[in-house]
Amino acid sequence: MRAEQQPIVALTAYDYTFAQAVDNAGVDVVLVGDSLGNVIQGHGSTVPVTVEDIVYHCQCVARGLDRALLMADLPFLSYADEATAIDSAGALMKHGGAQMVKLEGTQDQAAIVEALTIAGVPVCAHIGLQPQLVDKLGGFKVQGKDEQSANRIVEDACALEAAGADLLLVECVSAPVAERIRAAVNLPLIGIGAGVNCDGQVLVLQDVLGITQGRVPRFSRNFMPQGQSIPGALSAYAEAVRARTFPDATECFE
Ligand code: KIV
Ligand code: NA
Predict the structure, then answer these.
(1) Closest CA relative to residue 131, chosen from 202, 226, 232
(2) Which catalytic residues are annotated (predicted)?
(3) Domain assignment present for 25
């Protein structure tokens, strides 16, 4: 799709009914994200989410998909070493039905990505802001704001590609930093809070449907006013990603 300049539409789902709706809307990649810690379980972060939680929601989602690729998050500490990562990915794929796993990382996780790759696990590397590190970072902030940290994220992308990652996802970097990452790799780059010049976009389902209470990230968009219904909002999101009308300038970081 990158080679054909076809934008990749990705969205989270956590259950069977919404998986069907998301699949019917023509979403290409459905993510069982560890954001389920926030939007399903009501935790303040993704830290408490377990492999078992992701497996359960993957099973529910897998039954609802006909067409989309099913990607599942490896939760916090489920890939801290190579053997643990392989066990965790095995559970997501064998029991959950996931076709690709996603892990948050930097070049420090290259050996883990390589071990998964050698074992035959398709991997998406999630770079930039790593929400699982919220307690270490002290909050959710835009990443790569100075030259040195931007260079470091570009290096992370290259190292994870070289380690065998099949897909990259970048969160919360300025549009120019996302463009630098994209230019440095051959892999497709899916963005969230990373500007319009990525190969695709991902959002959290509840944000797209406008049902998230309280503070919503600046980079997400409620598609319900435009779509008028759940299927309408999901289709409007898919269309906006394909037409590159999402995100707009107000939904990006400078
Ligand atoms: O857990 C999640 O939903 C994610 C996406 C927002 C990228 O990782
Ligand atoms: Na996640």
Answers:
(1) 202
(2) 171
(3) yes
Return the number of other C-beta atoms located less than 10 Å from residue 36's C-beta.
23
Residue nearest to atom 1 of ligand 1 (CA): 33
For residue 12, is it within any domain? Answer: yes
pTM: 0.98
Based on the structure, what is the number of domains in the chain? 1
Whether ipTM > 0.85 holds is yes
Task: Give the pair of three-digit tokens for residue 70.
Answer: 């099913």
35 is an annotated ligand-binding site residue? yes
Q: What is the C-alpha separation between 41 and 105, in angstroms, rounded?
A: 24
Inside any domain, residue 1? no
Atom 8 of ligand 1, residue of closest alpha carbon: 33
List, for residues 186-220, the tens digit of each pLDDT value.
999 999 999 999 999 999 999 999 999 988 999 99
Per the annotation, the verdict on 171 as an active-site residue is yes
Atom of ligand 1 at shortest distance to CA of 169? 7
The domain of 173 spans 8-251
The answer to whether 166 touches 113, Cβ cutoff 8 Å, is no
Say whether 78 counts as a known binding-site residue.
no
Name the residue among 253, 173, 251 with its Cα closest to residue 216.
251
Q: CATH no. for residue 142?
A: 3.20.20.60
Q: What pLDDT is attached to residue 214? A: 87
One-letter identity of residue 203? L
